[in-house]
Design goal:
Elements: H1 10-18, H2 20-41, H3 61-84, H4 92-110, H5 112-118, H6 121-144, H7 163-199
Helix pairs in contact: 1-2, 2-6, 2-7, 3-4, 4-5, 4-7, 6-7
């Protein structure tokens, strides 16, 4: 209980504190998998001659309208799961997947071109790295404040009484950002391969 400090969820304390290094490297593995898929499947710009689909379900009015209605709720629920991971069931891995489903659903209904107008592939690549850097950055901040790497208790110097919870929440968001963006990257690359196969 003393180790858990101000974080009531023992599972979060276990994953983000006791196993903080392990969770950070799990996030790094997910990031690496996404980047490896890009290296294997993404074509150089000069070779990109396969037209990408537009609104693939243009005639399905009900699906298109309901998608626009549900996506905001999916996004809010995803952020809730990430944030709530500090005090109850949830966390970055689960919340990141939920957030990714909103973007993937949008791409399935409106086409990948529509998704790229919202978030470009290069932006996804950068955000995947940002999530890992955010996680590691919290650890570096702990070191800078005189504690150990990922010793969230020292963050009380920045936010008295809430430092540990703040650190774990930032870590969960780092995980969530990486998981979300890598899931979208995987979907995009596999969908692009399928489009290439159909075009050939």
């Amino acid at each position: 209980d003393d180790f858990n400090g101000h974080v009531p969820n023992s599972v979060t304390s276990l994953l983000a504190a006791y196993r903080g290094f392990d969770t950070m490297f799990e996030t790094t593995v997910i990031f690496t998998a996404g980047m490896a898929l890009i290296l294997l499947l993404r074509r150089p710009r000069e070779e990109e001659n396969t037209p990408q689909e537009g609104a693939v379900l243009r005639g399905q009015v009900i699906l298109r309208v309901m998608t626009k209605i549900f996506i905001p709720f999916i996004l809010v629920f995803g952020f809730y799961v990430i944030t709530h991971g500090e005090i109850g069931p949830g966390g970055g891995f689960q919340g990141g997947v939920i957030l990714a489903t909103a973007f993937i659903l949008y791409a399935l209904i409106y086409g990948r071109n529509a998704l790229y107008r919202i978030i470009a592939p290069k932006t996804l690549d950068v955000l995947a790295a940002v999530g890992v850097l955010l996680y590691a950055g919290v650890g570096v901040a702990c070191l800078a404040l005189g504690g150990k790497f990922l010793d969230y208790a020292v963050l009380d110097k920045l936010s008295p009484g809430d430092g540990e919870a703040l650190g774990m929440t930032l870590v969960e968001y780092g995980v969530g950002i990486t998981v979300c963006t890598v899931m979208i990257i995987i979907f995009n690359q596999l969908a692009e391969e399928q489009a290439k196969a159909k075009a050939s």
